[in-house]
Fold this sequence. Notes:
Layout: H1 6-13, E1 19-20, E2 27-28, H2 31-42, E3 50-51, E4 58-59, H3 62-73
Antiparallel strand pairs: 1-2, 3-4
The site of one zinc ion (ZN) has 7 residues, from α3.
Amino acid sequence: xxxxxxxxxxxxxxxxxxxxxxxxxxxxxxxxxxxxxxxxxxxxxxxxxxxxxxxxxxxxxxxxxxxxxxxxxxxxxxxxx
Length: 81
Ligand SMILES: [Zn+2]
Ligand SMILES: [Zn+2]
């Protein structure tokens, strides 16, 4: 019986998974780096400029609003009028 180890080793070496930014698609090697990027680049303003048209909640960024729409109202990025 032969066991091939080379494939296993490759699998271990490729354990790094890039985390893409949901807004600009840049990739980061750790959740902390991605979070910092989101806060620095996409959430630089502390004003709550994004308002939910359904319940009136306000959010710091479009990204948070999208997350809220999806979670609270089950809406996925589509436009409704
Ligand atoms: Zn980004
Ligand atoms: Zn809402």
